[in-house]
Amino acid sequence: MRLIMIKNSLFAAALLSLALAVSCAKGGNGIGSGITVTVGDNNVSIIYPTQTITFTATVKPPTTSQTVTWSLSGTGCSGSGNPCGTIDPNSGVYTAPAVPPTPVTLNITATSTADTTATGNLQVAIRLIQVVVTPSSVTVGDNGLEQQFTAIATPDDVKQSFTWNVTCTSSPCGQVVQDSNTSGLAVYTSGSNQAVQVSATSTVNDGSLASASAKVSVVSSRLVANSTYGFQFSGYDTANKPIAAIGTVTTSANGAIAGVEDVLTNTGYQQLSINSGSYAPSANNPNSNNLGTLTLNLSNGVTNKYTAVLTASGSIQMIESDGLGTGSGVMQKAAPIQFNAGGQTFAFGFSGSDPGGSRVGYVGMLPMVPSGTGGTITGGLLDSNNNGSNTGSCGAPPCTVAGSYQQDATFVNLWHLTLTTGVTQHFDFVLGGGQTQTKTGPNSLTLFAISTDPVDATHPEVSGTMVYQVPGTTYNNATFNGASISTLTGASANVALINGVTDGGSSGTGGTGSFFGNFDQNNNGTVLSVANFPASGQSPTPYTYVSTNGNSGRYIFQMLGNPNASPVVAPIPFVLYASGANRGFLLDQSSTAVLTGAMYPQPAKASGSYSPAGMPGTYAVATSSNSSPSVAPLVQNLVLTSPGGGVFNLAGAQNPGNVTLAGTYSMELTGTGAITLTAPAASKYVIGAIDFDATISAVTDFFIMGADSGTPSALMFAQQ
Question: ∠ CA 525-528-529 to the nearest 5 degrees?
């Protein structure tokens, strides 16, 4: 008997409840006749209730009659009502039942009429259709703002055909209009302030009436009234000199904004009041709920304007659009009650430049112990790289750090930080989003920081992010055991996106662990794509990692290089300060590129199980990291959809210019994929997913990097 393997469903482990469980087809021999029968499925990789499929059979040798009879069998097929469905004994036309049998697997059997002992079998399983609508929860501005929703039916090959509707408790609910070309895309136009449900129902009659709904809160403004926000911005002025800022603003009941901003330029530091400001959604845009203009009027007479895209949760990504410079940033609703409520350790990553314009990077950790409206820091660590020198202002790494911090007397979301290493350095920080928690994830408590000293050889201008370190964790080799995406930015538009796996090597007893995966690097237009590191000839592997400094959260990783070059280009050492398992801030220890960035975990339940069918949705995209004024920052509203048949489309708009985007996208099981644009011009991008919502089987966050040779790129961040 020979075995004919049948293809598996495209869906992976996290979506097994939605996928086809397929075994194999068998050919059978008639006793002494030499006849074999092979069953085929006409390239159908899923079966759902009420579906009709024509199975085929091939009888060999070909001179034998090709006539067969068809039958069904299986543990769940007995009983009345044809629980496994029906199959025409002559044509092989199979109609699945309205409800899957128990168990859901059954056998399709073809028997040769020339020899009834010669049979072929195909084992199949029947799965109910399920529908996912994204975003699953969103706030929408009232009185006519528009929010796009997407729907996808799973398993993958189900016909992507839906009906849409909107419900609420009082009129006007607003209305939802289905796209004329893509059934799984609809635009909701808001009515009055209230809770609304936008629903999509599959039109495929599988007996389950598969549908899903999104929770919509219709509000007067996407910025929450009477709330505090923290923001961070970095970029370049009109002379291409670096500029950075952090700030905090409060919103009033009528949407007005006021606050304070720390600005750092090549001429030094200054603090400015934000006397007034506003946020206004963009008019006449299909994503008007997600696109708008943020205006801040400063005490020095300058008005800064930012084009902003908003995620479903209300986080703002923005680029400067006032002609006074270029840059990008983020603004998040602050969580002040979460900070300084007890002893908290923060990992941090800062970048900037020295007085000569050379790139500088800091990473480290700060144990912060509260005392009144401030606190103290003892036992902190810091590593630096100033244009290739890792001694910096504090000697050989890692430097021991102490210090103190104090809440501002006027602005409760502004704090002042003093750090003592080889020299004394001063910083301000504001609270961004997130919360303290005992798990890793994208919602850890986040602070935005900036240096406030006069710039000199030992006081570079740096700014960056501090993230709460998950407590109660022994940060040894075993803690880093799983998949991750790392993002890196270095001098002169040198960026990289790494999909890596740490093996938890040496089980925390010392020594080194192994780091393997693939990466893409775009060094000012020179593109390097490495399908696998280490290379097959690299034994023992030079790609390793090791916990240092008493399992405090400091690691040394070997990354990048070029294992496929001849001769091989060895990886370079990075120091990582962990904020959680497979998560932390990265700094290369010795190169003049001064590559800085972060490692993000791919959730354990989703690692190895990403799929393009988990990505349809509306994403807010913005430049997140850029080290060259030659690369213009941008914001996008991406709409990812699937018309079915394994096709995955990309549409949307890009600003500045409200440029129409069109193309396709793909996603591999490992969480890496590609975007291929056809408009506004042919271009390629690589993507790396960092978060997956298992409750709706959807990717929610991913990074994007340009992969066209000769075209420099920044890193961009996409979030639903």
Answer: 130
Q: Token pair of 259, please?
A: 């606050």
Provide the CB-side half-sphere exposure for 11 (13 A, CA). Answer: 24
Rounded distance, CA 545 to CA 557, Å? 4
Rg of the chain over CA atoms, in angstroms?
Answer: 29
Question: How far apart, in whole angstroms, are the C-alpha atoms of residue 124 and residue 390?
Answer: 60
| Sign of the torsion angle spanned by Cα atoms 111, 115, 117, 121 | negative
| HEC per residue, 40-84 | ECCCCCCCCCCCEEECEEEEECCCCCCCEEEEEECHHHCCCCCCC
Vertex 582 angle, CA 697 and 333, to 5°: 65
- Report d(CA 561, CA 390) in Å as an integer: 19
pLDDT at 19 over 50: no
Q: What CA–CA distance (Å, rounded) separates 177 from 165? A: 8
Alpha-carbon dihedral sign for residues 380, 386, 390, 396: negative
Percent of residues, the chain, with pLDDT higher than 90 = 61
Is the pLDDT at 44 greater than 80? The verdict is no
d(CA 452, CA 244): 11
> How many residues are present in the chain?
720
Q: What is the pLDDT of residues 56-85, one digit of tens each?
A: 999 999 888 999 999 999 999 988 888 999
Domains present along the chain, CATH in parentheses: 3-125 (2.60.40), 130-219 (2.60.40.10), 228-333 (2.40.128.120), 336-468 (2.40.128), 612-719 (2.40.128)
* 559-578 mean pLDDT: 95
Q: Can you tell me the distance from the alpha carbon of 122 to that of 73, in angstroms, rounded to the nearest whole number?
A: 10
* Cα–Cα nearest to 664, from 691, 682, 689: 682
pLDDT band at 15 (very low <50, low <70, confident <90, very high): very low
Report helix, strand or coil for 378: strand
The Cα-based distances of 261 to 230, 252, 330, 430, 449 in angstroms read: 10, 18, 14, 10, 11
What residue type is 626 in one-letter code? N
